[in-house]
Design a protein that fits this description.
Helix content is 23%, strand content 33%. By secondary structure, it is an alpha+beta fold. It is globular and about 75 Å long. GO terms for molecular function: calcium ion binding; calcium-dependent phospholipid binding; calmodulin binding; clathrin binding; phosphatidylserine binding; SNARE binding. InterPro entries: C2_dom (IPR000008), C2_domain_sf (IPR035892), C2A_Synaptotagmin-7 (IPR037732), C2B_Synaptotagmin-7 (IPR037741), Synaptotagmin (IPR001565).
Length: 403
């Protein structure tokens, strides 16, 4: 009997059988992987597509971000729509299913691209980009001109989502109205107490103003937080050149507030220590020194001193202050102040540190502030907790002065 020398031994699979088995195994693996990827991508893309529809489709979905309207320019000008460009909506899922695939490699490449687009890293980048600019809220106002009476009318309507400037977690906002470059003549709204979404609905008239001069002015609105014990804190500002507005009728605008120009830049740092003595029910505040203070005087320097306020439940309890250091942007104070604070009142207590610039001829200027309590900023809260955790020991820390 003739026997093929290359034939396998009895019971061993032939080469054709092994090849077929390998092909089946690879096909099943690819199918399982692709099915898993498809389901994962469909869930991700479906969720993203649903969120996009909810964002674009509802008129109130823009709250918390910027909402701007088109500015109508004078005749002959070009209308400028400053509304933000909506992000591109992903393709409908049904469109993806019906797209022809030339091969398995095309399908894998396509799914890989979509997976990269939907990776968590890209979503984090988008979120970071959206939070990179501080949200100062927005303001609604109207402006128009009466040619017969030569009067410019400005109506301050309301503001939304203003930041909290007081340690109690709120603000007392009001608005100043200027026609730049004139800063001497200004008008002001009433103060709205403890309100981050105030409604003013106040109308202001600039009478006897020729139209030729009006179009050379810039309407400037500054929102401030009223402070009884020190200078009012700036919240944000808006400016609009009146030659860019059709003043023949009242125009209403929503504008995002921008950081005030006089509040930009570093204000310097202050080194201070806190020492809590639970048996004596007291806190000792030691104002040690400051560095790189902002120059508030014309000569490029300041005459700094420090005020220390003890506040309990939004009420002033006690005030102390250091001596004034003449013409010094890096003063050394080394002055200590003791305050009686019962342990049970610690959570409702705030210590406000204010660095001031002494001025003989006018009102003293605020260089910067620090709020120390359980509910201040991260650095301030850390200092406060370290003080509680280490009783009878002075705990020193540098703090950045804030507007």
């Amino acid at each position: 009997m003739y026997r093929d020398p290359e034939a396998a031994s009895p019971g061993a699979p032939t080469r054709d059988v092994l090849l077929v088995s390998a092909i089946i195994t690879v096909s099943l693996s690819v199918t399982v992987v692709l099915c898993g990827l498809c389901h994962w991508c469909q869930r991700k893309l479906g969720k993203r597509y649903k969120n996009s529809l909810e964002t674009v489709g509802t008129p109130d979905s823009g709250r918390g971000r910027s909402e701007k309207k088109a500015i109508k320019l004078p005749a002959g000008g070009k209308a400028v729509n400053t509304a933000p460009v909506p992000s591109q909506t992903p393709h409908d899922e049904s469109d993806r299913r019906t797209e022809p695939r030339s091969s398995v490699s095309d399908l894998v490449n396509s799914l890989t691209s979509e997976m990269l687009m939907l990776s968590p890293g890209s979503e984090e980048d988008e979120a970071h980009e959206g939070c990179s600019r501080e949200n100062l809220g927005r303001i609604q106002f109207s402006v128009g001109y009466n040619f017969q009476e030569s009067t410019l009318t400005v109506k301050i309507m309301k503001a939304q989502e203003l930041p909290a400037k007081d340690f109690s977690g709120t603000s007392d906002p009001f608005v100043k109205i200027y026609l730049l470059p004139d800063k001497k003549h200004k008008l002001e709204t009433k103060v709205k107490r403890k309100n981050l979404n105030p409604h003013w609905n106040e109308t202001f008239l600039f009478e006897g103003f020729p139209y030729e001069k009006v179009v050379q002015r810039v309407l400037y609105l500054q929102v401030l937080d009223y402070d009884r014990f020190s200078r009012n804190d700036p919240i944000g500002e808006v400016s609009i050149p009146l030659n860019k507005v059709d003043l023949t009728q009242m125009q209403t605008f929503w504008k995002d507030l921008k950081p005030c120009s006089d509040g930009s830049g570093s204000r310097g740092e202050l080194l201070l220590s806190l020492c809590y003595n639970p048996s004596a029910n007291s806190i000792i505040v030691n104002i040690i020194k400051a560095r790189n203070l902002k120059a508030m005087d014309i000569g490029g320097t300041s005459d700094p001193y420090v005020k220390v306020w003890l506040m309990y439940k939004d009420k002033r309890v006690e005030k102390k202050k250091t001596v004034t250091m003449k013409r010094n942007l890096n003063p050394i104070f080394n002055e200590s102040f003791a305050f009686d604070i019962p342990t049970e009142k610690l959570r409702e207590t705030t210590i406000i540190i204010t660095v001031m610039d002494k001025d003989k001829l006018s009102r003293n200027d605020v260089i910067g502030k620090i709020y120390l309590s359980w509910k201040s900023g991260p650095g301030e809260v850390k200092h406060w907790k370290d003080m509680i955790a280490r009783p009878r020991q002075p705990v020193a820390q540098w703090h950045q002065l804030k507007a």
